[in-house]
Amino acid sequence: MLKRILIITGILIVGIASFSLLNMPSEVDTAVANKEEPEPFSTKERELHVSTLNTVTEKIHEKYGDLEFAVSSNSEIELNVKVKENEEYFYSVKKDIESIAKNVIKSSTLKDYTVIVERMDLSLISEEAENANKELLHLASSLMEGLKHNDVFGNINTEYQKSITIQTSIKGSDKDAHKLAMEIDETVNEILHSKKLNSVSNIYSYKIKILNSKGEVVN
Hints:
The chain is α/β, with parallel strands linked by helices. The protein is built from five helices and eight strands. The protein has helices spanning about 25-35, 45-65, 85-105, 125-145, 175-190, and strands spanning about 5, 10-15, 70-75, 80-85, 115-120, 155-160, 165-170, 205-210. The strands form two sheets. A four-stranded mixed sheet has the order 1-6-7-8, with helices on one face. Strands 2-3-4-5 form a four-stranded mixed sheet, covered by helices on one side. Strand 3 and strand 4 form a beta hairpin. Helix 2 crosses helix 3 (about 85-105) and helix 4 crosses helix 5. About 30% of the residues are buried.
């Protein structure tokens, strides 16, 4: 069951209840994200990092199913939750969201991160970012629709014009796991090259990665 679209720019996990959220980071956020995490930052560490952000997103969704928000981290050792809501509602949930995030990260690789919950300033989103957002929403919704009946399909992580990562419940990395992964890979390729995605720019630039339940690439 798909609960969200995950878009990584630096590392950004976006929670949505519908396809209406402007989920690209603002120009300010992009500048922070491009600083990247301190090196060395191994593949395994990055997977654990993203997994934790993913869990924060899930836990917030469990309690606030209709909330539109973005969860991200930066090189300042901060975990940011940006909420797209009116001021009154934002302040009514701010402390609870902060508590949820702190409980998730306290035993994770992000345990030393400071949790910051703030309102999303939509006035800072550029036209370029908004157009990219629309493309990604169209791409992600098409992939969701095409994969929704696949029993092992979990979530989609998308890095703009770079990669599409499909998280699954596939166990292990043996031949059977590879077969399941390649079936998803084939479906994704069919969707990418269908007429419905003609409007998506640089479609050939996306590298497809299928991950098993442990976060290992199996395609």
